[in-house]
Write a structure and sequence with these properties.
The protein is α/β, with parallel strands linked by helices and 420 residues long. The protein has 2 domains: 2-19 and 233-419, Enolpyruvate transferase domain (UDP-n-acetylglucosamine1-carboxyvinyl-transferase, Chain), CATH 3.65.10; 22-230, Enolpyruvate transferase domain (UDP-n-acetylglucosamine1-carboxyvinyl-transferase, Chain, Alpha-beta prism). The chain has helices spanning 22-31, 48-59, 85-88, 98-105, 124-132, 166-176, 192-203, 235-247, 263-271, 309-317, 336-342, 372-384, 395-398, 404-410; strands spanning 2-7, 13-17, 39-42, 62-67, 70-75, 82-83, 107-111, 136-140, 143-147, 155-157, 182-186, 207-209, 215-219, 228-230, 251-255, 274-279, 282-287, 295-297, 322-326, 346-350, 353-357, 366-368, 388-392, 414-419. Bound molecules: uridine-diphosphate-2(N-acetylglucosaminyl) butyric acid. Uridine-diphosphate-2(N-acetylglucosaminyl) butyric acid (EPU) is lined by residues 23, 26, 92-93, 121-126, 160-162, 165-168, 306-307, 329-330, 372-373, 400.
Length: 420
Amino acid sequence: MDKLIIKGGKKLKGRVDISGAKNAALPILAATLLTDERCIVKNVPMLTDITTMIKILGELGKSVKRVGSTLVVKTQDKSRCVAPYELVSTMRGSICVLGPLVGKRKKAKVSFPGGCVIGPRPIDLHLKGLRDLGIGINVKGGYIIGNGKEIKGTRIYLGGHFGSSVLATANVLMASVLAKGKTVIENAACEPEIADLVRFLKKMGAKIHGAGSPRLEISGVRYLKGCTHALIPDRIEAGTYMLATAITKGDVYLRGGQFDNLLALIDKMREAGVSIEKKGKGIRVRHVKGIKPIDVTTLPYPGFPTDLQAQMMALMAITQGISVITEKIYPERFIHISELNRMGARIVLEGPNAIIKGVEHLSGAPVMASDLRASASLVLAGLVAKGTTEISRIYHLDRGYENLEIKLQKIGADIKRVKE
Ligand code: EPU
């Protein structure tokens, strides 16, 4: 297993190129199941989560060829309909093959994804929405068995305890595009990744209105064709580099960073005193003066993303004063606190609120990555800590950050990957 060794204290300076969005790639690759024709998806990041999705598509009779950052997806066997436990259990995002599979092939057998280190992640909304469309859903032997012989458009309310759901929206949307009649999804997720999925589906010939809004209207069509699509840049990767720049008091230009998809983060970073400008096809982030403590609450888009909560916490950990971070999407997504505290941070948890008393400096330590975004927060902490930080179990980072240490080295970080 690899680990990362970071010597803290270097200011990040220069330019980072933002990769394609992982969380747009996963549902869009799943959407290729809606046609037997060839699809070309461009700007796909090289990540283990993408490799997992390619393997699942392989199990479902697709051949996927990678040329650089372009994937060419073709159909070889359209009778396959089982997404096995061995693959689905390694990545929650693989649940998004259920909707397109049952929508197009009329039957699906997809392993139940199970628990997750960031807290319980139920799929009740996915199953409710699919049932509302007339899809027969049974759970047997750890698998969801879907029967899509009579899919009919209807009006579906898709909100749960924590508001909208990104992948439930993706699943229900993909199951409805080939349905008879009109479907309306109320309380649909508004995330840019869902809007990108809608763009892809429309290129395939789907009829959808309301992308990016909480109401999606879908008029079912009989057939969808292959298409070519370039993924949007990854807003969470961009946000992570923005916070890395602020924490190291740096000055970095994020080429491809989409300002308009990051407004909640930008608002909070500006409140904290960081200079952020939209510039050409990217974003310039500059540390100009002392950073102030802030309060942040995570919410569904356009609110502050839960996927940047841990990285923001690393910044607040070295910001004088008291900050409060409230997690409203995954109330248990706080595993990074103990590791940040091991580096000298002073953070306590009270229910879904993390109370952060800013310290003057963090000190390097051996720490362990636990999930993707928690790991990113440890990298940020390592970049600013005094001394050396060793992060083990970095396979979590490889799931979601393309060439992380190479990109960081290019902007001046002292970081290297070594074999454990
Ligand atoms: N929820 C339910 N029932 C459901 C589905 C979700 O109660 O059937 C709850 C969840 O437990 C959570 C909330 O609704 O409290 C929102 O979860 P959501 O369904 O939106 O999450 P997801 O679609 O499974 C995607 C991203 C996550 C990201 C969340 C929230 C992908 C592949 N994953 O997950 O990304 O945190 O949306 O924005 O798109 C990551 O990239 O590190 C990551 C975890």
